[in-house]
Amino acid sequence: MTHEPAHTHAPNPPGKPVLELRDVCVNLGRERVLSDVSLLVREGEFVGLAGPNGGGKSTLLRAILGLVPTSCGSIQLFGVPAHEFRDRRRIGYVAQNAAHVETAFPASAEEIVRLGRVAPRGLLRRLNGEDKRLALEAMREVGVEKLARRQIGAMSGGQRQRVLLARALASRPDLLVLDEPTTGIDPQARDDFTHLLVRLNREKGLTTLLVSHDTDILSHAATRLVVIDRKVQYDAPIDPDAPLPGHLHLHDPRLRP
Amino acid sequence: MNFLDILLHYEFLQRALLAGVLVAILCGMLGVFLVLRQMSLLGDGLAHVSFGGVAIGLAFGFYPIGVALVGSVLAGVAIYLLRDRGIVKGDTAIGILFTAGLALGILVVSATGGFTVNANSYLFGNILAITTQDLQVVFGVGLLLVLLVYAFFKEFFSMTFSEEAAKVTGLPVGLLNVVFVSLTAATIVVASRIVGVLLVSALIIVPAATSLQIARSFRVAIALSVAIGVLSVVAGMVLAVQEGWATGASIAIVAIALFVLTLAGKRVFREPVVEPEHPHG
Fold first, then answer.
1. What's the rounded Cα separation, in Å, for the pair B19 and A22?
2. Based on C-alpha coordinates, what's the Rg of chain B?
3. 3-state DSSP call for residue A249?
4. Which whole-number Å values give the CA distances from B229 to A121, A207, A214, B22, B140, in the listed order?
5. Which region, left, alpha or beta, applies to residue B131 given φ > 0 means left and ψ of -120 to 50 means alpha?
6. Residue A127 — φ and ψ, nearest 5°?
7. Which of B20, B45, B177, B273 could be joined to B98 by an S-S link, Cβ 3.0–4.6 Å?
């Protein structure tokens, strides 16, 4: 079952579908982790994916990104079946635990952000001036341009997370996907990061899909909340005037469909 | 006569030095990727497979380096597939292929009349005693491999930082891994002619590990690793020629000495690395 966002919060007119899941199920080993997941994300939306640990929210993200196979149903990215989708630069991805990068890894912030240009540039081609310009632009966007020469391991968790966001933005994506991006970073850095995501979505119109168990971020940043526990348990727009409770619980009556 | 006089007199030594430097460049580059991807053991494992290939070549009259090249590349790809398909874990896959190569080599050697001087030179490496044909192969293959690593440099860097993120951005990670493992296998075969199967890690792992102690950017890490490898080969060969020491062992000792010196230097010149949480604003 697909829940459309209420028209009061959806972009007006409603944007084109960016991501469409129909009756998707995923098995990990012999266990069915997700079943009958249907979801439609339109241009300009900021969808927060929440749910209990082991409920399959990260697995759903990995299925969308093509990192785990689905065993039934279909996934469409920008109107194209996921297995035929080739224009990968349109998806920017910030992985879980990205803030815990091996601190000894010998790479400067600039080198890491430029990695976002590697696939768009193509095999056997060197990164050119345009790639370097786009990388610098992405660093400015997230406010890490002054850290360009600093080693990734010598940064705070919050700074590192911004660098990894800049890498995802360097390919100029139309969909930003983040998996628990604020785990392990301090509250101030977390708030800054949340504001950054909100700005990218509201001002630049960047469609965002964010997995988090942090209701604070979800209620401040997302325009729509989807709760996953093996199935879609709840899917509705977030009312900015009635923020979510501090400790969103799956069995909270407010989350009953 | 000092080393320079000897070098000017003997053309074989000039070629040996050139091949040695080329191999050091190659190992220095690949070593950084292998160490960071926690695949250093792959080099060691493939070196033993390469020994099996050499033994088969010697026993049946095929060109030993050729058999070793084909065998190691196939074994490397097999290791990758066993790991990637989730059949066994990476280190187990290396363990299986590595023992298979070594056992096959020893079996062939024992069945055809025991260790010969030739097999010994493959185990311990002696670039000063190898044939002109070997030297040409080492040089030719080495040059090709350096060019290939350079060609796929940005992709290998991306996969080393995060294979998953590289895959999401659309890089053909499976194909690139096969290319990477094949390049590593070919490098091991070529490098073992210089330092021998048993000391091949001296050129793959040690310069990279030394460089990673101090490098703060990827470009610097690669450059330093290459420089340390080249220095080890040149200094090792000078010592070997002047003092009459074994080449492979001399090169390995120089590389390890540089590693120890770097560690010591790092302790003396240690500086804080922790940054304040919010310098921006």
1. 59
2. 20
3. coil
4. 31, 48, 48, 10, 19
5. beta
6. -65, 135
7. B45
Angle at B187 between CA B183 and CA B190, to 5 degrees: 145
- Interchain CB distance below 8 Å, B219 and A171: no
Closest residue in chain A to residue B171, using alpha carbons only: A119
User: What would the two tokens of residue A127 be?
Assistant: 């990164």
**How confident is the model at residue A18, as a pLDDT?**
97
Q: Maximum Cα–Cα distance for chain B, whole Å?
A: 75
Distance from CA of A108 to the nearest CA of B (A): 5
Contact B169 A88 (CB under 8 A): yes
Q: Are strands A31-42 and A17-28 parallel, antiparallel or unpaired?
A: antiparallel
What does the pLDDT read at residue B137? 87
Using DSSP's 3-state secondary structure scheme, residue A3 falls into: coil
CB pairs under 8 A between A and B: 101
Nearest to B279 by CA among A185, A195, A144: A144
CB atoms inside a 10 Å sphere around CB A233: 18
Contact residues of B toward A, CB < 8 A: 32, 36, 151-152, 154-155, 157-158, 161-162, 164-172, 211-212, 215-221, 273-278, 280
* Host H or E run for residue B226: helix B218-243
Compute the average pLDDT of residues A11-26.
Answer: 86
Q: What is the ipTM score, two decimals?
A: 0.88
Per-window interface: A 81-140 vs B, CB < 8 A: 86, 88-89, 91, 93, 95, 103-108, 111-112, 115-116, 118-121, 123-124, 126-127
> Model pTM?
0.89
pLDDT < 70 stretches in chain B: 1, 114-118, 271-281
CATH code of the domain occupying B3-264 = 1.10.3470.10
Q: What is the pLDDT of residues A222-242, one digit of tens each?
A: 999 999 999 999 999 987 666
Domain residue ranges of chain B, discontinuous segments joined by +: 3-264
B contacts of A113 (beta carbons < 8 Å): none
A187 vs chain B: nearest CA distance in angstroms?
11
Cβ atoms of residues B27 and B207 within 8 Å: yes
- Side-chain-side CA neighbours of residue A144 (13 Å): 35
Q: What is the pLDDT of residues A173-216, one digit of tens each?
A: 999 999 999 888 889 999 999 999 999 999 999 999 999 988 88
Q: Who among B32, B168, B212 is closest to A65 (CB)?
A: B168
Q: Cα angle at B68 between B62 and B74, to 5 degrees? A: 120
Q: Are A1 and A27 in contact, with CB atoms under 8 Å apart?
A: no
